[in-house]
Write a structure and sequence with these properties.
Blueprint: H1 15-39, H2 48-61, H3 75-85, H4 93-120, H5 123-134, H6 137-145, H7 150-165, H8 171-180, H9 188-197, H10 207-222, H11 226-230, H12 232-237, E1 244-245, H13 259-283, H14 289-306, E2 310-311, H15 316-328, H16 333-351, H17 358-378, H18 387-407, H19 415-436
Parallel strand pairs: 1-2
Length: 447
């Protein structure tokens, strides 16, 4: 009898015994997430005033306001603001803007849970996947505290991955993700690889500009100029002139590189690496939904890691996809945990000015990229949970956070910082290495 790695259960079993605990866990975590978001509803960052201005314009001008470029986002976000403005009586402008993110965060959590359920058929795993996404620290930072919109494009990117995992064509939701925010292109190498792998007609690539054009029709009808609509991403690209905007990526180590050279080198490096990943996906003989999700995770971390001008929140989609991967195979649990730690360290650079967390976060992200690429090259192996590695990771990470919070904002290189940062990075390396070791029981131990 074949061993089922996901411990599937009979889907025809009676509902009460099988679903009682998962439903209770999901409902409890859903309520907890709503409470946390309610408590953070008035938290404002430097960007909050701009969001409120956009919302106020949408509320005061209604549909006629679509003729103006009143945000620096794509038309899709303008539509969402108009919808939110219809509920102006429910709360303050900032709270309603954050509600947009909350709705798509819930959508992301449901999509990830659905991914896990489709593959494993285990209700508790699907429930835990939902809870992990809904309560993830970076998700709470991004939406509840900052009111950012990364959950929107990530929602469509996750749908794209989920469709490919089910042997369906996921190009269209990917095109919508790119039409929402330019960061949707992080999934590009994965999508191109799947197009080549599944021999999907290359004409489907036309869906990317096509989706943007269709979503822009209402603003064009309202009177907004075509040049303005087409120039959104170009204008965004010229907003900042730094090789990294608190992103824990390659450019933390190369901050002294001249801006123009760094941008050109980063674009070339990302394009070459993305093309290599696409070719690997197309030629790989590995199959199954777990492999599809793994290569999607590699695409979602590799692009923001290599590209210049990235913000701290651009690893958002990887952080959520890694949670789904960990729920499919516990061997990847360290990746999801470390991604959250690195994300919070990066968010603190903007939230509290604690920039020293970027160095260990960038080192740990480097390890994640390295080991995920190795996984693609060598295939799945067994693993063993190392209690020492987990204990060391927890202690060293707690020490790093404690030092950064007590030391305060700014640049503060001291022996104490070097010690805790070095320990956190070393224990991350040990933890990830232990998860990839071949266990005595073979590959089945990974489940």
């Amino acid at each position: 009898m074949l061993h089922d790695p996901y411990h599937r259960v009979n889907r025809d079993e009676t509902l009460p015994e099988r679903w009682r605990t998962p439903i209770a866990v999901a409902v409890g975590c859903a309520l907890m997430g709503l409470v946390l978001r309610y408590l953070a509803r008035e938290h404002a960052t430097a960007d909050a005033a701009e969001y409120i201005t956009w919302y106020t314009f949408a509320r005061d001008h209604g549909i006629a306001g679509l003729a103006e470029a009143f945000t620096n986002y794509t038309p899709f976000y303008s539509y969402l603001l108009l919808i939110a403005a219809r509920f102006d009586w429910l709360g303050q402008p900032l709270s309603l803007v954050k509600t947009i993110s909350v709705i798509f965060e819930l959508g992301c959590a449901i999509v990830v849970a659905r991914m896990v359920w489709q593959v494993t058929g285990v209700p508790l795993r699907a429930s835990l996947a939902f809870c992990a996404v809904w309560l993830a620290p970076t998700v709470l930072f991004n939406g509840a505290m900052w009111g950012q919109a990364d959950s929107i494009w990530t929602f469509f990117a996750l749908i794209s991955v989920a469709m490919f995992m089910r042997d369906r064509n996921g190009v269209l939701p990917f095109a919508v993700a790119c039409s929402v925010k330019a960061q949707g292109v992080f999934l590009g190498p994965f999508v191109l690889g799947m197009i080549l792998r599944r021999k999907i007609h290359l004409a489907w690539l036309a869906a990317i500009p096509g989706a943007y054009a269709v979503l822009a029709i209402p603003v064009l009808i309202a009177g907004r100029s075509l040049v303005s609509v087409l120039g959104v991403y170009l204008d965004q690209a010229h907003t900042f002139h730094h090789l990294t905007m608190n992103a824990a990526n390659l450019w933390v180590f190369a901050g002294g590189t001249p801006y123009a050279i760094g941008v050109a080198a980063g674009l070339v490096l990302a394009a070459a690496s993305g093309l290599a990943l696409s070719i690997f996906i197309a030629q790989s003989r590995r199959t199954g939904p777990e492999f599809i999700l793994l290569v999607a995770c590699v695409s979602l971390i590799l692009m923001p890691y290599l590209l210049p001008k990235m913000h701290e929140r651009y690893f958002y989609a990887f952080e959520l996809a890694s949670i789904a991967l960990a729920c499919l195979n516990l061997r990847y649990l360290p990746f999801a945990v470390i991604a959250q730690v690195d994300g919070v360290l990066s968010y603190l650079a903007f939230e509290s000015g604690i920039v020293m967390g970027l160095l260990p976060a960038a080192l740990c992200n480097t390890l994640l990229v390295f080991y995920l690429v190795l996984d693609l090259r060598h295939g799945e192996r067994g693993f063993r949970f190392s209690r020492f590695a987990w204990l060391g990771f927890t202690a060293s990470t707690a020490g790093l956070f404690s030092y950064l919070l007590f030391a305060g904002a700014g640049l503060n290189v001291s022996p104490a910082y070097m010690l805790v940062a070095g320990l956190a990075t070393a224990m991350t390396l040990l933890l990830v290495k232990e998860q990839r070791c071949v266990s005595a029981d073979g590959p089945d131990a990974s489940h």
